[in-house]
Write the C-alpha coordinates for this entry.
Amino acid sequence: RIRSISLRRVLDSRGNPTVEADVLTESGGFGRAAAPSGASTGEYEAVERPPTEAIAAAREHAVPRIEGLFAGDQREVDAVLRAADGTDDFSEIGANSAVAISMATAKAAADVLGAPLYQHLGGAFRGDNFPIPLGNVIGGGEHARDATHIQEFLAAPVGAPSVVEAVFANAAVHAAVAEELDERDVPAAKGDEGAWAPAISDAEAFEVMDAAVETIEDEVGFEIRFGLDVAAAELYDSDEEVYVYGDETKTRAEQIAYVAEMIDEYDLAYVEDPLDEDDFEGYAELTERVGVAGARPSQAGDCLICGDDLFVTNTDRLQTGIDVGAGNSILIKPNQIGTLSDAFDAVELAHRNGYDAVVSHRSGETEDTTIAHLAVATDAAYIKTGTVGGERTAKLNELIRIADDAV
Ligand code: PGA
Ligand code: ZN
Protein backbone atom coordinates (compact mmCIF):
# COMPACT_ATOMS: atom_id res chain seq x y z
CA ARG A 1 0.00 0.00 0.00
CA ILE A 2 1.02 3.58 -0.57
CA ARG A 3 2.55 4.95 2.61
CA SER A 4 3.27 8.48 1.45
CA ILE A 5 3.28 10.86 -1.49
CA SER A 6 5.63 13.85 -1.60
CA LEU A 7 5.28 16.62 -4.15
CA ARG A 8 7.85 19.25 -5.00
CA ARG A 9 8.76 21.82 -7.66
CA VAL A 10 11.68 20.90 -9.92
CA LEU A 11 13.13 22.45 -13.09
CA ASP A 12 12.06 21.53 -16.57
CA SER A 13 14.16 21.85 -19.74
CA ARG A 14 12.93 25.40 -20.42
CA GLY A 15 13.89 26.47 -16.91
CA ASN A 16 10.29 26.57 -15.75
CA PRO A 17 9.07 24.90 -12.57
CA THR A 18 7.17 21.64 -12.85
CA VAL A 19 5.67 19.09 -10.44
CA GLU A 20 7.63 16.03 -9.28
CA ALA A 21 6.00 13.28 -7.23
CA ASP A 22 7.57 10.63 -4.99
CA VAL A 23 5.45 7.61 -4.08
CA LEU A 24 6.62 5.35 -1.27
CA THR A 25 4.89 2.07 -0.38
CA GLU A 26 4.66 0.30 2.99
CA SER A 27 6.91 -2.46 1.64
CA GLY A 28 9.61 0.01 0.60
CA GLY A 29 8.68 0.37 -3.07
CA PHE A 30 9.63 3.75 -4.50
CA GLY A 31 8.56 5.65 -7.62
CA ARG A 32 9.43 9.15 -8.79
CA ALA A 33 8.02 10.99 -11.80
CA ALA A 34 7.77 14.55 -13.10
CA ALA A 35 5.19 16.24 -15.31
CA PRO A 36 6.23 17.63 -18.69
CA SER A 37 4.77 20.84 -20.11
CA GLY A 38 3.64 21.96 -23.57
CA ALA A 39 4.07 25.26 -25.41
CA SER A 40 1.78 24.60 -28.36
CA THR A 41 -0.92 23.11 -26.19
CA GLY A 42 -4.30 22.01 -27.50
CA GLU A 43 -7.40 23.91 -26.45
CA TYR A 44 -9.02 20.70 -25.16
CA GLU A 45 -6.15 19.44 -23.01
CA ALA A 46 -6.45 18.82 -19.29
CA VAL A 47 -5.40 21.92 -17.40
CA GLU A 48 -1.89 22.49 -16.13
CA ARG A 49 -1.88 24.74 -13.06
CA PRO A 50 1.07 26.77 -11.75
CA PRO A 51 3.10 24.15 -9.85
CA THR A 52 2.81 25.80 -6.44
CA GLU A 53 -0.99 25.88 -6.72
CA ALA A 54 -1.18 22.41 -8.26
CA ILE A 55 0.91 20.98 -5.42
CA ALA A 56 -1.12 22.73 -2.71
CA ALA A 57 -4.42 21.59 -4.24
CA ALA A 58 -3.20 18.01 -4.71
CA ARG A 59 -1.94 17.88 -1.12
CA GLU A 60 -5.31 19.04 0.14
CA HIS A 61 -7.66 17.03 -2.06
CA ALA A 62 -5.86 14.02 -3.54
CA VAL A 63 -2.90 12.90 -1.42
CA PRO A 64 -4.90 11.94 1.71
CA ARG A 65 -7.28 9.83 -0.40
CA ILE A 66 -4.52 8.00 -2.27
CA GLU A 67 -2.31 7.19 0.69
CA GLY A 68 -3.40 3.71 1.80
CA LEU A 69 -4.36 2.45 -1.68
CA PHE A 70 -2.45 -0.35 -3.43
CA ALA A 71 0.19 1.10 -5.75
CA GLY A 72 -0.37 -1.85 -8.09
CA ASP A 73 -4.01 -0.90 -8.55
CA GLN A 74 -3.34 1.79 -11.13
CA ARG A 75 -6.96 2.12 -12.22
CA GLU A 76 -8.11 2.66 -8.64
CA VAL A 77 -5.43 5.27 -7.95
CA ASP A 78 -6.24 7.09 -11.18
CA ALA A 79 -9.98 6.95 -10.49
CA VAL A 80 -9.43 8.41 -7.03
CA LEU A 81 -7.26 11.16 -8.56
CA ARG A 82 -10.17 12.04 -10.82
CA ALA A 83 -12.74 11.89 -8.06
CA ALA A 84 -10.57 13.95 -5.72
CA ASP A 85 -10.15 16.56 -8.44
CA GLY A 86 -13.86 16.63 -9.19
CA THR A 87 -13.63 18.34 -12.59
CA ASP A 88 -13.50 17.02 -16.18
CA ASP A 89 -10.14 18.54 -16.96
CA PHE A 90 -8.13 18.33 -13.73
CA SER A 91 -8.45 22.07 -13.25
CA GLU A 92 -8.59 21.65 -9.44
CA ILE A 93 -5.42 19.66 -8.63
CA GLY A 94 -3.82 20.36 -12.02
CA ALA A 95 -3.05 17.77 -14.69
CA ASN A 96 0.61 18.28 -13.78
CA SER A 97 0.07 17.05 -10.21
CA ALA A 98 -2.24 14.29 -11.44
CA VAL A 99 0.10 12.89 -14.07
CA ALA A 100 3.15 13.05 -11.78
CA ILE A 101 1.30 11.08 -9.08
CA SER A 102 -0.14 8.62 -11.62
CA MET A 103 3.25 7.88 -13.19
CA ALA A 104 5.11 7.75 -9.85
CA THR A 105 2.51 5.25 -8.59
CA ALA A 106 3.18 2.96 -11.56
CA LYS A 107 6.92 3.16 -10.92
CA ALA A 108 6.47 2.36 -7.22
CA ALA A 109 4.34 -0.66 -8.13
CA ALA A 110 6.96 -1.87 -10.61
CA ASP A 111 9.58 -1.44 -7.91
CA VAL A 112 7.56 -3.55 -5.48
CA LEU A 113 7.28 -6.26 -8.13
CA GLY A 114 10.94 -5.98 -9.04
CA ALA A 115 9.88 -5.64 -12.68
CA PRO A 116 10.85 -2.98 -15.21
CA LEU A 117 8.12 -0.37 -15.67
CA TYR A 118 7.31 -1.41 -19.25
CA GLN A 119 6.75 -4.97 -18.05
CA HIS A 120 4.48 -3.90 -15.19
CA LEU A 121 2.47 -1.62 -17.52
CA GLY A 122 2.40 -3.98 -20.50
CA GLY A 123 1.90 -7.24 -18.65
CA ALA A 124 2.72 -10.76 -19.70
CA PHE A 125 0.91 -10.60 -23.04
CA ARG A 126 2.61 -7.51 -24.34
CA GLY A 127 3.80 -7.67 -27.97
CA ASP A 128 7.51 -7.63 -28.67
CA ASN A 129 7.54 -4.76 -31.16
CA PHE A 130 9.57 -1.67 -30.46
CA PRO A 131 8.47 1.84 -31.29
CA ILE A 132 10.35 3.70 -34.02
CA PRO A 133 11.69 7.00 -32.70
CA LEU A 134 10.52 10.10 -34.58
CA GLY A 135 13.33 12.65 -34.31
CA ASN A 136 12.61 16.37 -34.48
CA VAL A 137 15.55 17.83 -36.44
CA ILE A 138 14.22 21.12 -37.93
CA GLY A 139 11.59 23.16 -36.20
CA GLY A 140 9.95 26.47 -35.53
CA GLY A 141 6.37 27.41 -34.80
CA GLU A 142 5.82 27.92 -31.09
CA HIS A 143 9.14 26.23 -30.28
CA ALA A 144 11.46 28.83 -31.84
CA ARG A 145 11.14 32.36 -33.20
CA ASP A 146 11.93 33.36 -36.80
CA ALA A 147 12.20 29.76 -37.96
CA THR A 148 9.91 27.53 -40.03
CA HIS A 149 6.12 27.93 -39.83
CA ILE A 150 5.68 24.16 -39.72
CA GLN A 151 6.52 23.30 -36.12
CA GLU A 152 8.53 20.10 -36.64
CA PHE A 153 10.32 18.19 -39.40
CA LEU A 154 10.84 14.69 -38.04
CA ALA A 155 13.21 11.96 -39.16
CA ALA A 156 11.49 8.55 -39.34
CA PRO A 157 13.97 5.65 -39.63
CA VAL A 158 11.27 3.17 -40.66
CA GLY A 159 13.68 0.53 -41.95
CA ALA A 160 16.01 0.44 -38.95
CA PRO A 161 16.76 -3.14 -37.89
CA SER A 162 16.96 -2.19 -34.21
CA VAL A 163 16.05 0.53 -31.74
CA VAL A 164 19.65 1.55 -31.23
CA GLU A 165 20.28 1.92 -34.96
CA ALA A 166 17.10 3.97 -35.30
CA VAL A 167 18.14 6.29 -32.46
CA PHE A 168 21.59 6.84 -33.95
CA ALA A 169 20.15 7.34 -37.45
CA ASN A 170 18.05 10.26 -36.13
CA ALA A 171 21.11 11.79 -34.47
CA ALA A 172 22.97 11.40 -37.78
CA VAL A 173 20.15 13.15 -39.66
CA HIS A 174 20.28 15.96 -37.07
CA ALA A 175 24.01 16.34 -37.78
CA ALA A 176 23.50 16.11 -41.55
CA VAL A 177 20.91 18.90 -41.36
CA ALA A 178 23.51 21.08 -39.61
CA GLU A 179 25.93 20.42 -42.48
CA GLU A 180 23.29 21.17 -45.11
CA LEU A 181 22.50 24.46 -43.38
CA ASP A 182 26.18 25.27 -43.11
CA GLU A 183 26.66 24.72 -46.83
CA ARG A 184 23.81 27.11 -47.48
CA ASP A 185 25.37 29.62 -45.07
CA VAL A 186 22.30 29.56 -42.85
CA PRO A 187 23.03 29.97 -39.15
CA ALA A 188 20.83 27.93 -36.83
CA ALA A 189 20.24 27.94 -33.12
CA LYS A 190 18.16 25.17 -31.53
CA GLY A 191 14.51 25.29 -30.54
CA ASP A 192 12.92 24.03 -27.34
CA GLU A 193 13.19 20.38 -28.35
CA GLY A 194 16.76 20.55 -29.66
CA ALA A 195 15.79 20.74 -33.34
CA TRP A 196 17.64 23.21 -35.57
CA ALA A 197 15.64 26.42 -35.86
CA PRO A 198 16.94 28.18 -38.99
CA ALA A 199 15.34 31.25 -40.57
CA ILE A 200 14.45 29.43 -43.79
CA SER A 201 11.17 28.95 -45.62
CA ASP A 202 9.18 25.77 -45.15
CA ALA A 203 9.90 24.92 -48.80
CA GLU A 204 13.63 25.13 -48.12
CA ALA A 205 13.26 23.04 -44.96
CA PHE A 206 11.67 20.29 -47.04
CA GLU A 207 14.69 20.36 -49.36
CA VAL A 208 17.18 20.30 -46.49
CA MET A 209 15.36 17.41 -44.82
CA ASP A 210 15.15 15.46 -48.03
CA ALA A 211 18.87 15.88 -48.69
CA ALA A 212 19.89 15.04 -45.10
CA VAL A 213 17.71 11.96 -44.98
CA GLU A 214 19.05 10.72 -48.29
CA THR A 215 22.65 11.19 -47.17
CA ILE A 216 22.13 9.20 -43.99
CA GLU A 217 20.03 6.58 -45.72
CA ASP A 218 22.99 5.89 -48.02
CA GLU A 219 25.31 5.73 -45.03
CA VAL A 220 23.28 3.37 -42.85
CA GLY A 221 21.77 1.25 -45.62
CA PHE A 222 18.17 1.16 -44.38
CA GLU A 223 15.08 3.19 -45.22
CA ILE A 224 14.66 6.56 -43.55
CA ARG A 225 11.64 8.71 -44.36
CA PHE A 226 10.53 11.89 -42.72
CA GLY A 227 7.40 13.52 -41.39
CA LEU A 228 5.91 16.69 -39.98
CA ASP A 229 4.12 18.16 -37.04
CA VAL A 230 2.33 21.04 -38.74
CA ALA A 231 0.74 22.12 -35.42
CA ALA A 232 -1.82 23.79 -37.66
CA ALA A 233 -4.02 25.04 -34.81
CA GLU A 234 -1.22 27.51 -34.07
CA LEU A 235 -1.27 28.73 -37.71
CA TYR A 236 -5.05 28.97 -37.96
CA ASP A 237 -6.80 32.33 -37.86
CA SER A 238 -10.37 31.42 -36.99
CA ASP A 239 -11.77 34.88 -37.80
CA GLU A 240 -10.40 34.92 -41.33
CA GLU A 241 -10.67 31.13 -41.61
CA VAL A 242 -7.19 30.84 -43.10
CA TYR A 243 -3.86 29.26 -42.22
CA VAL A 244 -1.22 31.96 -41.83
CA TYR A 245 2.32 31.28 -43.07
CA GLY A 246 4.01 34.62 -42.44
CA ASP A 247 2.88 36.92 -45.25
CA GLU A 248 1.00 34.17 -47.02
CA THR A 249 -2.27 32.48 -46.19
CA LYS A 250 -3.94 29.27 -47.24
CA THR A 251 -7.65 28.52 -47.19
CA ARG A 252 -8.78 25.24 -45.68
CA ALA A 253 -8.98 23.65 -49.14
CA GLU A 254 -5.52 24.94 -50.01
CA GLN A 255 -4.14 23.63 -46.71
CA ILE A 256 -5.52 20.15 -47.40
CA ALA A 257 -4.15 20.23 -50.96
CA TYR A 258 -0.75 21.47 -49.75
CA VAL A 259 -0.34 18.72 -47.14
CA ALA A 260 -1.51 16.04 -49.58
CA GLU A 261 0.98 17.32 -52.14
CA MET A 262 3.87 17.27 -49.64
CA ILE A 263 2.99 13.71 -48.59
CA ASP A 264 3.10 12.71 -52.22
CA GLU A 265 6.20 14.65 -53.22
CA TYR A 266 8.36 13.64 -50.26
CA ASP A 267 6.81 10.26 -49.48
CA LEU A 268 6.18 11.45 -45.93
CA ALA A 269 5.76 8.74 -43.31
CA TYR A 270 3.96 10.94 -40.81
CA VAL A 271 1.91 14.13 -40.62
CA GLU A 272 0.67 15.42 -37.28
CA ASP A 273 -1.97 18.11 -36.84
CA PRO A 274 -2.28 19.11 -40.50
CA LEU A 275 -5.46 21.10 -39.74
CA ASP A 276 -7.08 23.09 -36.97
CA GLU A 277 -8.05 21.24 -33.79
CA ASP A 278 -11.79 21.66 -34.47
CA ASP A 279 -11.75 20.44 -38.07
CA PHE A 280 -12.60 16.73 -37.82
CA GLU A 281 -14.10 16.83 -41.33
CA GLY A 282 -10.95 18.35 -42.81
CA TYR A 283 -8.90 15.55 -41.26
CA ALA A 284 -11.31 13.03 -42.75
CA GLU A 285 -11.03 14.65 -46.18
CA LEU A 286 -7.22 14.60 -46.08
CA THR A 287 -7.11 11.04 -44.74
CA GLU A 288 -9.32 9.85 -47.57
CA ARG A 289 -7.39 11.86 -50.11
CA VAL A 290 -4.02 10.33 -49.23
CA GLY A 291 -5.62 6.94 -49.62
CA VAL A 292 -5.01 5.36 -46.28
CA ALA A 293 -6.24 1.79 -46.24
CA GLY A 294 -7.51 -0.15 -43.26
CA ALA A 295 -5.65 -1.15 -40.17
CA ARG A 296 -2.54 0.24 -38.46
CA PRO A 297 -1.04 2.43 -41.22
CA SER A 298 2.44 1.89 -39.77
CA GLN A 299 2.22 -1.78 -40.67
CA ALA A 300 1.08 -1.05 -44.22
CA GLY A 301 3.78 1.55 -44.76
CA ASP A 302 1.11 4.24 -45.24
CA CYS A 303 1.49 7.81 -44.08
CA LEU A 304 0.18 8.39 -40.58
CA ILE A 305 -2.24 11.29 -40.26
CA CYS A 306 -1.94 11.87 -36.54
CA GLY A 307 -4.15 13.90 -34.21
CA ASP A 308 -2.40 15.69 -31.35
CA ASP A 309 -4.33 18.89 -30.58
CA LEU A 310 -7.27 17.26 -32.37
CA PHE A 311 -7.57 14.29 -29.98
CA VAL A 312 -5.60 15.45 -26.90
CA THR A 313 -5.30 11.80 -25.75
CA ASN A 314 -9.03 11.95 -25.02
CA THR A 315 -11.19 8.89 -25.84
CA ASP A 316 -14.32 11.00 -26.48
CA ARG A 317 -12.55 13.13 -29.04
CA LEU A 318 -10.87 10.07 -30.55
CA GLN A 319 -14.26 8.34 -30.89
CA THR A 320 -15.60 11.42 -32.71
CA GLY A 321 -12.64 11.15 -35.07
CA ILE A 322 -13.08 7.41 -35.59
CA ASP A 323 -16.77 7.95 -36.41
CA VAL A 324 -15.97 10.33 -39.27
CA GLY A 325 -12.65 8.79 -40.39
CA ALA A 326 -10.52 11.69 -39.17
CA GLY A 327 -6.86 10.67 -39.29
CA ASN A 328 -5.49 7.18 -38.76
CA SER A 329 -3.40 7.65 -35.64
CA ILE A 330 -3.36 9.42 -32.30
CA LEU A 331 -0.60 11.14 -30.38
CA ILE A 332 -0.45 10.00 -26.76
CA LYS A 333 0.70 12.53 -24.16
CA PRO A 334 -0.23 11.40 -20.65
CA ASN A 335 -0.24 14.95 -19.32
CA GLN A 336 -2.84 16.00 -21.91
CA ILE A 337 -5.38 13.81 -20.17
CA GLY A 338 -3.94 13.51 -16.64
CA THR A 339 -3.50 9.80 -15.85
CA LEU A 340 -1.84 6.67 -17.23
CA SER A 341 -5.17 4.83 -17.19
CA ASP A 342 -6.69 7.41 -19.52
CA ALA A 343 -3.65 7.27 -21.79
CA PHE A 344 -3.93 3.46 -21.94
CA ASP A 345 -7.64 3.68 -22.76
CA ALA A 346 -6.85 6.03 -25.65
CA VAL A 347 -4.26 3.61 -27.07
CA GLU A 348 -6.65 0.70 -26.71
CA LEU A 349 -9.50 2.50 -28.46
CA ALA A 350 -7.11 3.52 -31.23
CA HIS A 351 -5.78 0.01 -31.80
CA ARG A 352 -9.27 -1.53 -31.72
CA ASN A 353 -10.15 0.77 -34.61
CA GLY A 354 -7.05 0.29 -36.73
CA TYR A 355 -5.46 3.56 -35.62
CA ASP A 356 -1.80 3.69 -34.69
CA ALA A 357 -0.58 5.22 -31.42
CA VAL A 358 2.42 7.51 -31.16
CA VAL A 359 3.66 8.15 -27.62
CA SER A 360 5.09 11.64 -27.22
CA HIS A 361 7.17 13.97 -25.09
CA ARG A 362 6.31 17.67 -24.61
CA SER A 363 8.47 20.62 -25.56
CA GLY A 364 9.12 21.23 -21.84
CA GLU A 365 10.58 18.00 -20.43
CA THR A 366 12.55 16.55 -17.54
CA GLU A 367 14.82 13.52 -17.23
CA ASP A 368 11.72 11.39 -16.60
CA THR A 369 11.69 8.27 -18.81
CA THR A 370 8.12 7.04 -18.30
CA ILE A 371 7.11 7.58 -21.94
CA ALA A 372 9.80 5.18 -23.18
CA HIS A 373 8.24 2.46 -21.02
CA LEU A 374 4.72 3.48 -22.01
CA ALA A 375 5.53 3.25 -25.73
CA VAL A 376 6.95 -0.26 -25.33
CA ALA A 377 4.15 -1.37 -22.99
CA THR A 378 1.40 -0.27 -25.38
CA ASP A 379 3.00 -1.55 -28.58
CA ALA A 380 3.01 1.96 -30.01
CA ALA A 381 4.15 2.34 -33.61
CA TYR A 382 6.31 5.37 -32.89
CA ILE A 383 7.74 7.34 -30.01
CA LYS A 384 8.26 11.05 -30.53
CA THR A 385 10.89 12.28 -28.14
CA GLY A 386 13.38 14.51 -29.92
CA THR A 387 16.87 13.67 -31.05
CA VAL A 388 19.47 15.42 -28.91
CA GLY A 389 19.65 17.17 -25.52
CA GLY A 390 19.66 15.50 -22.11
CA GLU A 391 15.93 15.54 -21.46
CA ARG A 392 15.40 13.92 -24.89
CA THR A 393 18.29 11.43 -24.73
CA ALA A 394 17.02 10.33 -21.30
CA LYS A 395 14.07 8.70 -23.09
CA LEU A 396 16.06 7.48 -26.10
CA ASN A 397 18.75 5.90 -23.96
CA GLU A 398 16.10 4.26 -21.77
CA LEU A 399 14.54 2.83 -24.94
CA ILE A 400 17.93 1.40 -25.91
CA ARG A 401 18.24 -0.11 -22.42
CA ILE A 402 14.75 -1.62 -22.61
CA ALA A 403 15.58 -3.19 -25.99
CA ASP A 404 18.78 -4.48 -24.41
CA ASP A 405 16.76 -5.79 -21.46
CA ALA A 406 18.99 -3.77 -19.15
CA VAL A 407 16.65 -1.49 -17.24
P1 PGA B 1 4.11 21.05 -27.07
O1 PGA B 1 4.29 20.65 -28.59
O2 PGA B 1 4.69 20.02 -26.20
O3 PGA B 1 4.83 22.36 -27.03
O4 PGA B 1 2.63 21.23 -26.89
C1 PGA B 1 4.58 19.38 -29.04
C2 PGA B 1 3.63 19.00 -30.10
O5 PGA B 1 2.85 19.85 -30.61
O6 PGA B 1 3.61 17.84 -30.47
ZN1 ZN C 1 1.97 18.23 -32.01
The longest strand covers residues 2-11. Residues 163-183 form the longest helix (21 residues).
